[in-house]
Structure prediction request, 727 residues.
Amino acid sequence: MKKILLGNNAIIQAAIDSGVSYVSGYPGCPSAEIGDDFAKIAAQNGVYVEWATNEKVGLESAIGASFSGLKTLVSMKSFGINVCSDSLLPLAYTGTKGAMVIVIADDPSCWSSAQTEQNTRIYSQFGHIPTLEPADPQECYDFTKLGFEISEKFNTPVILHTTTRVNHQKMPVTFEDVKKNAEFKKGQFEKNPYQFATMPPRTMEMKKELLDKIKKIQIFAEKSKINLIDSSKNKVGVITSGVSYLHVKEALEVLKLDLPILKLGFFYPLPEDKIKKFIHPLKKLLVVEELDGYIEREVNVLAKIENLKLQIFGKNVLPIIGELNTEKVCVALAKITGKKFLEFKVKKIDLPRRTARLCEGCPYWYVFPTLKRVAPNAIFTGDIGCNMIAGFAPHNIQDTLFSMGASLGIGHGVSKSTNQKVISIMGDGTFFHAGISPLLNAVYNKSKPLMVILDNRITAMTGHQPNPGMGKTLMGEDTTQVSIEEIAKACGVKHIKVLDPISIKELESTVKEFLEKDEISLIICKRICALLERRQKKS
Amino acid sequence: MENFNLILTGVGGQGIITLLQVIDEAAVVEGYDVKSSELHGLSQRGGSVEAHIRFGKKVFSPMVSNGQADLILALEAMEGLRESAKAGKQTRLLVNNYILPIPGAPTKEEIIKQLRGFKSNFYLVPASEDCKEKLQNEVVCTLYMVGHAVANKLMPIKKESALTAIKNVIPEKYLELNIKAFNLGYGE
Prediction:
């Protein structure tokens, strides 16, 4: 079967063809379609799909399924690995039972990410987790399948490390299209605390077992076809991985160069012998990888053993900030080979930047101007989601932006440290993800920020995923509709007001009243996302 | 044929992803290798959106290098002007005569005047206006643009291939409307 697929949909297809039956994770761009689109075809393929409340819970959910013998897929964006790392690292120690592939999608150039331009690959070395890097949707399919095979063979989680230009790349993909039973088959948890509980002194033994296992996987990687060599007799060579390989291939065509390329499908563990053999005859080497030069560092170490005279280029000729493209690789290759390359000069056209904005009819239109008017001197700590548009014109009220849930964590700190008024803004999705813990902290440690939860009844920014406040699961089943107000009450918040932000007067007077309180207060601005409302009316 | 390089540009919510799907599919129907790159998420909330499509004998990277586009297809004129900064000598610009204004933006007249600097490489079409007037639906202006590009050989896609692609990609419910928009742009 051959069909044009988005990288993310190729991952779904590979998971189905590999016999996956349990899918969890947390939505974020550029990985969100993996859960969203999987849910649409899950039932007919006998697969269970959920969005967990955050990435740590999502991973733990998959760990439970894996220990019960099910084949599992987990997906999250770059920052998700920060959230789940506390359980990811012990998972490397225990290993998996049912095979598990974890998709982590980085976003070089921050196309749809705030926070940081993080290069997640470091976790693979740090946690000793085998990691594959596909370059395009066909490889998304092939590498996901291989990931399940490796996981099954070695009882280890396998990370599929992708980037925006891989997740959101389309091309015709050849796949098997295995017909599956439309019935979800439950597993069986067989007790084995020796393997599933990381209790010292067993922990140290497990570490030894893990390191031995990685050695075996390294031998497997040495023979693996996904570490492929485009051969040539030229003494200048290129080592690359992921989407950078595509830019290298284009750049060589542009510059009419024929250079040997080692394309690493494995990022961790690296096939060290293969690399040594590849660099042995070379005089110069360019390592092409996005963001930090992790592979370059490793190759430098290997060159000390194998080829002392080798001149290694990498981050000294390629940027460490922003995604790569053909032109950037051309510039680097031209510098090394002495070939001429004229960079295209982009004209200067003076136009205002068109930033993301609140949609027409968005309930936040009522909230931001009101807060700004009533409390012009307040410190506004911002959070992840549509509400971060508060940082753009015409609002311009966002004083801090960090990670999910951080608006209140930081708001508490500012409130304790100053005599200033603090307003912490957060969406409903983020509240369920990471907002409850800082709320509890603010109550417990007695600070007095005003928390404003913008409850638009869905996780909107990432593409309208359901959350615990909606009474529906990802697969469309009815479930308990969790009340933010009740959670806040249980946390000990005494001043709570739930209102429709369209009632600006009520919002205004409540803000005024709550800002005078000597304890934390909470306004829940409850009104459905305008896009969601329009969609519901249509259907 | 060397690989054909196409950049789609517009404002989040204008239907760039569907447009990309149709052209990707049409390229496959023509027998080309194809790769494309799109952006989702933050940029879709009313921000500038840009997508790339490359097709031909063998395509590696889905990204069009600066100056290398054969065609820039702009669903909104100011975004077309913005993208024209990357236009090379061979680049043709097909621009929808339609503006989504933002504070500080030049007037439509100023934008069009600057675009006219591209002389015979610049094609201005009333896609939104015609679709609104004749089909009572502005969103299908994307297919109108495809129709115009195919009719004027702005991209190496035959009419039959485009129509097959539309049938393969667009859901049954909206198929007739989209074909009408294509034909309107094609000039029939």
